[in-house]
Amino acid sequence: MPKVRVGDIQIFYREDGHGDHLVWIQGLGLDHRGWALQIPFFAQHLCCLTFDNRDAGQSDRSAGAYTIRTMADDTIRLMDALAIKQAHIVGLSMGGAIAQEMAINYPARVRRLVLVATYTSGDPRGTDLLNSFVLMRARLSREEYLRAIGPWIYSYQDYLIPGLVEAAIKKGVEDPYFLPAKVYARQVEAATTHFTGDRLKQIQAPTLIVAGDDDQLTPMRFARTLHEQIPGARLTVFQGTGHGLIWTRAEEFNNLVLSFLKEA
After folding, report:
1. Do the beta carbons of residue 75 and residue 102 sit within 8 Å?
2. pLDDT per position as a tens digit, 172-207
3. Number of C-beta neighbours around residue 1 at 10 A
4. What pLDDT was estimated at residue 15?
5. What is the pTM of this model?
6. d(Cα 256, Cα 259) in Å, to the nearest integer?
7. Residues with Cβ < 8 Å from 170, sequence gap 6 or more?
8. Residue ranges of the chain whose pLDDT lies below 70
9. Per-residue b/e over 152-163, b at no fewer than 16 CB within 10 Å?
10. Which domains are seen in the chain, by residue range?
């Protein structure tokens, strides 16, 4: 599969479908495979660009520390390398933070913006939480770690879906690109130092915010701030849903986002 040099690293990417470009940006520790329930659907309508952030999946490991802005620049340079002048952008969690920086710093490159289960800034609670994930990655077996973080990803109602959590744990245990604690820690540092709270009004792209009302990782206060601060933004809240809404509510999520993008 293809890679392209982006600044100091090589980024792994793939394109599926035809037409206008839709760029998908994954969250902390995840890679392009996290969009498996979205791409087959959206590739029927758009050209989907998925990729692995630096330090994730099959992209290169970073030589040192970096920021959310670094990863926003990576994404823009990837678009440059592929001659993509403008695209719709969808970002999940940390990917939503990256998408915010793109929309603020490169407004001409973003057609429509979809921010999913994301946040406006690091805070003491979130920093301690993610740093505890780093410690657990270093000290627990992979299965123990995945079971420990499951309640932060999935809601009470999600746990009632037969086989959902067990299937996710099995997939994680078998993942050949599961990030080591030291690599994961670099992404955590970038994620927890993110702050766009004072710049959200600069976002010009039509924006859809999607949140789960039972999201413990990026609580509803972030969605409300994004909705209030981004001019003209829309907010859709999935009831009884946690941080993993792109997997647990995939059909509803896909239809919602496609409807929004078709307005362009």
Report:
1. yes
2. 999 999 999 999 999 999 999 999 999 999 999 999
3. 7
4. 98
5. 0.98
6. 5
7. none
8. 1
9. bbbbeebeeeee
10. 3-261 (3.40.50.1820)
Task: Give CA 226 to chain center in angstroms.
Answer: 16
Tell me how far apart the alpha carbons of residues 170 and 70 are, in angstroms, rounded to a whole number: 32
**Residue bearing tokens 């009831």:** 239
Element spanning 14, H or E: strand 9-16
C-alpha atoms less than 13 angstroms from C-alpha of 25 in its C-beta half-sphere: 33
**pLDDT score of 264:** 77
Beta strands across the sheet bearing 47-51: 3-6, 9-16, 47-51, 21-25, 87-92, 110-116, 207-212, 234-238
The secondary structure element, H or E, covering residue 9 is strand 9-16
Rounded to whole angstroms, how far apart are CA atoms 128 and 148?
15
Secondary structure (3-state) at 102: helix
Q: How far is the CA of 211 from the CAs of 4, 55, 121, 146, 159, in angstroms?
A: 32, 26, 16, 22, 18
Cβ–Cβ under 8 Å, residues 17 and 8: no
Tens-place pLDDT, residues 1-26: 699 999 999 999 999 999 999 999 99
3-state secondary structure of 214: coil
